[in-house]
Amino acid sequence: MEAWAEGSAEKLERFIQWLHRGPAGARVDSVKLEQRRPTGSYRHFEIEG
Fold it and tell me: On the chain, which terminus has fewer CB atoms closer than 10 Å, C or N?
């Protein structure tokens, strides 16, 4: 799975913490993070699957 996110430092930290736990019943084996310069391109949330 791949996720891209932009936001305040506080919200991103909460999101990263959630990524390490995952949803109820999930098993997270690893999380790889890459920091990139924000683009301002992400104005909505969408799940593709």
Answer: C
Contacts of residue 26, defined as CB under 8 A and 6 or more positions apart, other chains included, come to none
Distance CA 26, CA 22 (A): 6
Spatial separation of the C-alpha atoms in residues 19 and 10, rounded to whole Å: 14
Q: How confident is the model at residue 47 (pLDDT cuts 50, 70, 90)?
A: low
Tokens of 24: 């109820």
